[in-house]
UDP-galactopyranose mutase
Amino acid sequence: MKVDILIIGAGISGATLAERYANAGKKVLIIEKRDHIAGNCYDHYDQNGILVSKYGAHLFHTNDDEVWEYVNRFAEWYPWEHRVIARVDGKTVPIPVNISTVNILFDEKLETEDDMKQWLEQNRISFDQPTNGEEAVLNRVGPVLYDKMFKHYTKKQWDKYPAELHASVLERIPVRSNYDDRYFSDKYQALPKGGYTKVFESMLDHPNITVLLNTDYFDVKDQYEGYEKLFYTGPVDRFFEFEEELTEKLEYRSINFVTEHIDAEYYQENSVVNYPGREVDFTRIVEHKHFGNQKSDKTSIVKEYTVDEGDPYYPVPNEKNQLIYEKYKAKADQLTDVYFVGRLANYKYFNMDQAFKNALDLYKTLEHAKAGAL
Ligand code: UDP
């Protein structure tokens, strides 16, 4: 079989590049280790007819018009503003921290934005330039909320305290001085009707695209040479693991998803409930039927336990890993016609929209002269 473009991995990055190249007339082969497409966005209907995500909740949000236009080519999306609540000290509070969070946790009676700003000013410890996750949180909300809502959740999630992580990890969560309890504030916040897997099916539904599932690229790589370009979306260190001088491993976090089927209409009042305390080992419980207000007599919930072994889901952003990554990146940059793309290959904590954006940008950079506009 003639292959112009070889792509390793059928997640966001791989599918986007496949779709772009196939539409430009190239023959594309995707090699995917798992038995399904869609990467960690993969979802399916469970035994109760509820659409569930196999690898945790995926909430699409973006401020990028181009990405929004692009994803709308492959599905109808309905507006969905994600909200998260947390159980703290036996109380239930909104996260991100807003006026209600402070009132509920500390029996305060803050009413206005000014009240909240004043409370934050009295409690926060100011850092001009937070150098790690602990400083980032202290700078925003101060030590009491840091202890209750961020310190132990982060330890459970990363097996590191916030001080051992880049500030950017904790800065993903904003602080609100009003009552806004939405998790994100982006212009576009939506879910695809019928689920994410359908989006990927639609992206890959092209006569120029072949997908080979259940195949580890490293087992078959000798059979697939002679391509024009190779796009690799797996963990960057895996690509070089047979090279002796690069033995330092990058850290990744994986998640152990433990599902329970429950013979009741609902288990909890919200799609995601965080458990930032030490009293339980899991970080959060996701009840998928809340997404899109799905109806069913029964429900299922998923408890998330993060672990260091298993499929890599999260890079671990800190100084040490960044330095190791730079070494791999230098190796990667030396290769011609081989491109590293996506969360695992770039070792970056991309959101979904950033993954789309990076793949689209890479395509444009490589093919600009020929492809013109997107
Ligand atoms: N975080 C926290 N408490 C929470 C929620 C998040 O300490 O209740 C911290 C934690 O370190 C987490 C980071 O903020 O890894 C980013 O959270 P986000 O919800 O963006 O993580 P994701 O959904 O990507 O797992």
Q: What stands out?
A: Residues 86, 95, 149-150, 153-154, 157, 169-170, 172-173, 274, 276 surround uridine-5'-diphosphate (CB under 6 Å). The first strand starts at residue 5 and ends at 8. The first helix runs from residue 12 to 23. The CA atoms of residues 266 and 299 lie 6 Å apart.
